[in-house]
Structure formats: C-alpha cells, structure tokens
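Notebook, bench 3.
Goal today: get a predicted structure for ATP synthase I from Cetobacterium somerae ATCC BAA-474 so we can plan the truncation constructs. The sequence was checked against the plasmid map this morning, with no discrepancies at the termini. Length recorded as 124 residues. Pasting the sequence as submitted so the record is complete.
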Amino acid sequence: MDELKKIIKRGIITAVVVLIYGVLSGNKYVYMGMFSGAILSVVGFYMICLDAKASLASNSPFKVGVIGYLKRYFLYGIFLALATKFYGFPMLVSGVIGLLNIKINILAITLFNNIKKFKSKYLK
C-alpha cells in the first residue's frame, strides 16, 4: 500500500512540475495537454486501485475488472478525442505523453530500486 501512495504522490509531483515548466515556457501543449494527461493518468491509476479492491470483495472479479478497464479507457478516449478535436494533432501527442506519467514513474522507481540493490550487492 505504501508503494501505491508513493507512486500517486510522485505522479502528482510530476504533473505539477510539467505545469510549472509549461507555464514558464509559454507552451500551451505542455501546460494544457501534458498536465491534463498527467492528472488523468493519476486518476486512472487511482481507479485501478479501487477496482482491485472491489474485485477482491466481489463474487465476479472478472466482470468488475472488465467494467473498470472499459471505464478507464473510455475516459482516456474522450480526453484524447476532445484534445484532438479542439487543438489538433500536437495536443493529441502531448496528451498521450501526459497519460504515460504513471508508467514513467513506475519505471523510474523500479530502475532506482534495482540500481540500489546492484550497488549494495556489488559495489561495497
């Protein structure tokens, strides 16, 4: 549970850093598309956590999982469709990059932990 809180916390911090960078650079694709995608990524990850809890308590965990999956990807699809319709292809790309926020944070945490293990095991 602590790892999940850590991932969500880092995802929010990353989203805030993206927002600050976008405002300072004056690039609307960064502060609108990437920030919105990053926040939506955190919300989607939180929805995954809630779906996992619900599926453990449910009589039909497959149904709960599939419905949760469809809700999340419907939300992502609506976000990307609206971003593309109103702002064009560059906003689609920046929104997709923002949606990768949680995945990049999980990758960074895993790599950092593996480097720490390697360092403590082989580089004493």
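The helical segments are 2-25, 28-57, 61-87, 89-99, 101-122. The chain has a mean pLDDT of 92.
Flagging this for group meeting.
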